[in-house]
Amino acid sequence: MDADWTVVTLKKTDKQKTSGMSQAQAIGSLKASGSITTEKKFAAGENKNTGSSNLKKIDDSTDEYKHNTVDKNLRMAISQARQAKKMTQKDLAKAINESAQVIQQYEAGTAIPNPQVLNKLDRALGVHLPRNKKK
Fold first, then answer.
1. Smallest Cα–Cα separation from 107: which of 75, 135, 133?
2. Could you tell me which of 68, 66, 78 has the C-alpha nearest to residue 113?
3. Exposure letters 50-64 (e unless 16+ CB within 10 A, then b)
4. In 3-state terms, what secondary structure has residue 55?
5. For labeling, which of 35, 44, 105, 108 is most exposed (least CB within 10 Å)?
């Protein structure tokens, strides 16, 4: 019988080589052996944005943007109709299923008009409240 032998080479795996080392030591030894390669990415970890020309335009802009708020005529109409019905702001809020703060904002003129709330107020107060005209 003819013996056909081939040479077998056994090597340790990376895990076996680095067991018992700290993570930093293990990474260092694997880099030295060539098992791991690292490459630095351009601007990695930096919080810089070079394409911010639009932000400069916004900062230099002199336009003023404001939300539409409740008109003085509407504020007065809501409070007069509520008082004519002898309702408090809390009673009116309960009648339209909104918070009392919403009624306060409408009567103070700080609320952003919501057509659904205005329709509820129309029905609860029994009057047609004036609306802001669209510009």
1. 75
2. 68
3. eeeeeeeeeeeeeee
4. helix
5. 44
